[in-house]
Amino acid sequence: MAILAAGIGAGTVNTVVGSGTLITFPTLLAFGYAPVVANVSNTIGLVPGSVSGAIGYRPELEGQRSRARALGLASLLGGTVGAVLLLVLPAAAFKTIVPVFIALALVLLIAQGQINRMLGHRRRRHGDGIGPVSFLGTFASGIYGGYFGAAQGILLLSIFSLTIDDSLQRLNAVKVVAAGLVNLVAGIVFVFAAQVAWGAAGLIACGSLLGGILGARFGRRLPPAALKLVIVAVGITAIVRLA
């Protein structure tokens, strides 16, 4: 029941902000799973939550098909690279800099207004708001997400907020899709190349599916200022827990 409950919490948090891994990953460790096995099983289990969350955000996804496709491609490529890195590199090599990534993302998000004013409100627009910075930033976030994934949503929202001119709720909807694709492609790699605790992954999957529905209902009602406040609070919590 504890793993199922953790899955519900993670699915909810991932849809609203990101960092659901900080709920499920420690839970699996507490049940005695090895870190890599826990990380792999967690990644697979969180995929259904991304699907239900994206369905819940359908109104905000309207008119963003080409944007979602471009960023989705970057996520798939980055997630594949990250999953391979997890299998060939020691976990400590990357996990030590996770708090730095989260802190940087929070600084960028908090300073978004000031940065935009310094740039004269001129964002480089390419096609549907997707330029090389957006694509490469999403690709880099995908590498991180495929490797570990904690606070990937915060990183994505920071990148999108600084490079794409749109509301935070619409960007959050694209974030759900992009992060979900990273988990999906990494999960596929892990199914064929890593040890998976299928019982734990199944419990997280059931929980995250429900959590994604709850997260979409809650997250879509938050005004931009409140959503940003939640993002910052979750990010600081993530830094404290990982530092």
Description:
There is one protein chain. The chain has helices spanning 2-16, 21-30, 35-45, 47-56, 58-61, 65-88, 91-95, 98-110, 112-118, 132-147, 152-163, 168-193, 198-219, 224-242. The chain is mainly alpha-helical. The protein has one domain (2-242).
Key descriptive features of the protein:
single chain; mainly alpha; globular
Summary, kept brief:
The protein has 243 residues and is mainly alpha-helical.
Number of helices: 14
- Quaternary structure of the protein: single chain
Structural class: mainly alpha
Instruction: Using the alpha-carbon principal axes, give the shape.
Output: globular
The chain-level mean pLDDT equals: 83
Strand content: under 5%
Percent in helix: over 70%
Q: Please mark out the parts with pLDDT under 50 across 5 or more consecutive residues, or reply none.
A: none
The SSE order reads: HHHHHHHHHHHHHH
Number of domains: 1
Please give the alpha-carbon distance between the first and last residues: 28 Å
Radius of gyration, in angstroms, nearest whole number? 16 Å
List the helices and strands and how they pair.
Layout: H1 2-16, H2 21-30, H3 35-45, H4 47-56, H5 58-61, H6 65-88, H7 91-95, H8 98-110, H9 112-118, H10 132-147, H11 152-163, H12 168-193, H13 198-219, H14 224-242
